[in-house]
Specification:
4-stranded antiparallel beta sheet; 12 helices; 17 strands
């Protein structure tokens, strides 16, 4: 009995604060105070009461056998991820339980791979150097059974696999978390929450893999789970999208007709809808027009850029209306796919009420077409009767070409005054000019303004 007492006292002295608190609470004693107070309280129990239960539990704590196992949150459902296909569940959702009142908490779990699972990982293809297509991933989410849960990291998250800190996708997704970051008052980090790939730090054998999760305990409940998954790339998802989710051109025309259908109760009648042929994500021309089936707009975004963006940062949000656009609801617009090759130099088209479409010219073309068109006359050409085309009665049909026998005469605009014959000819054609040319452009001036040569010097 004396030997057991000495062994129990030595065990108590080696306990951590959390273990001492759990031991004292189990024996119905207060667990508040500093570590030296907790140790003294536990030693008095051993020395004075000699409780066999205390000795038994003390031995169990030393061997790590009596630590309460974290409860299994079996009813927690995690959202499926387009870039991951779950092959097997290695650890079902298990709640992270705080062992004490400290802000930073640790939770340990372990798992073993079967020989077939080891072979799957070893023989799979590589997405890129040192990144396998078959992985063991760790997922963390809220412990909430009321709805399907998205991945959500707790504050100050750190994951250690076999005593080595692994890479947690923080910010750009490549920085290793080698130390526990400072506590930021329980604020959840703003970063893309995705599964943590722990494959590079695992034993690729049937040996036991031990995982330690460190997190900030600020009142919210989290659970952790492990899965063997197959990882897809954006190119893989694009291939699947092309094969299984293309909306036909006829169905797209019906959608347009439904949107532009006449509504007698509406005060405003819409006769057409303009659609840009540029992707709102990258401001470049659409390659593969795509949108979500739940979106009410006809505007599309580029499927390749959208998948690549969500591979880097999974938001799955429509760039046009900011509503959810999950992968399973994406579809390729068959009508716009037919229109794009026919409109290489056009950035915008208009869909009409009958499902047809027309080109919308660029801004310069619209300005040019809306400006008034005036007849261009060559004032350096004089007709046979000495009149200029601007003063000819035949100017209704445009500029009149001089007869072949009449030589071209250049009018010198530097003369101060016109000859009497030219002035007379100009007066003779005034009436016709006012009646014929006034509809298209203003009549030409009848003469030059006289000025005093002494006041103006020509250089």
């Amino acid at each position: 009995m004396a030997a057991e007492l000495v062994e129990a006292m030595n065990m108590v002295k080696s306990f951590r604060v959390s273990e001492l608190q759990m031991l004292l609470a189990l024996m119905g004693r207060s667990k508040s105070g500093l570590k030296q107070d907790l140790v003294g309280r536990a030693l008095r129990l051993v020395q004075k009461e000699h409780s066999p239960e205390l000795l038994l539990h003390g031995a169990d704590y030393l061997n790590g056998l009596a630590k309460p196992a974290a409860p299994t949150a079996a009813d927690v459902k995690l959202a499926p991820l387009p870039f991951y296909q779950t092959l097997e569940t290695l650890l079902p959702p298990t709640e992270l339980v705080a062992q004490n009142t400290e802000k930073l908490q640790d939770c340990q779990c372990s798992f073993e791979l079967t020989p077939s699972q080891v072979e799957q990982i070893r023989n799979c293809r590589e997405l890129r150097p040192s990144l396998k297509s078959i992985q063991v991933v760790l997922r963390i989410c809220y412990t909430d059974t009321s709805s399907i849960q998205e991945d959500q990291y707790p504050p100050n998250i750190a994951v250690k696999v076999n005593q080595i800190y692994c890479h947690v996708p923080v910010r750009s997704g490549t920085e290793p978390l080698v130390t526990t970051p400072p506590i930021n008052r329980g604020v959840e980090p703003r970063r893309p929450c995705r599964p943590v790939n722990i494959t590079p730090w695992m034993h690729l054998s049937t040996a036991t893999n031990r995982i330690t999760v460190t997190w900030g305990n600020f009142g919210k409940r989290y659970c952790v789970s492990l899965y063997l998954v197959r990882v897809f790339t954006a190119a893989d998802l694009f291939t699947r999208l092309k094969h299984y989710s293309v909306e036909s051109a006829e169905r797209c025309r019906e959608r347009i007709q439904d949107k532009l259908r006449f509504d007698p109760e509406s005060e405003i009648t819409t006769t057409g809808l303009c659609v840009s042929l540029n992707c709102p994500l990258v401001k470049m021309r659409l390659g593969v027009p795509c949108r979500a089936l739940t979106c009410a707009h006809l505007q599309c975004f580029d499927a390749v850029f959208f998948l690549q963006m969500n591979e880097k940062k999974p938001t799955w949000t429509c760039p046009v209306c900011d509503k959810p656009a999950p992968f399973e609801l994406l579809t390729i617009d068959g009508l716009l796919s037919e229109i794009l090759p026919q409109t290489e130099d056009v950035e915008e088209i208009e869909f009409l009420a009958d499902g047809s479409w027309r080109l919308i010219p660029e801004e310069k073309d619209r300005e040019r077409s809306s400006s008034p068109q005036c007849t261009l006359l060559d004032i350096s050409v004089v007709e046979a009767n000495g009149h200029s085309p601007a003063h000819s009665g035949s100017s209704q049909s445009g500029a009149t070409a001089p007869p072949a026998a009449a030589p071209a005469v250049v009018v010198d605009l530097t003369e101060d005054t016109l000859s009497e014959e030219e002035e007379g000819g100009g007066r003779a054609g005034d009436t016709d000019t006012e009646t014929d040319d006034s509809q298209d452009c203003p009549p030409p001036k009848k003469g030059r303004c006289r000025y005093d040569k002494d006041l103006v010097t020509a250089y």
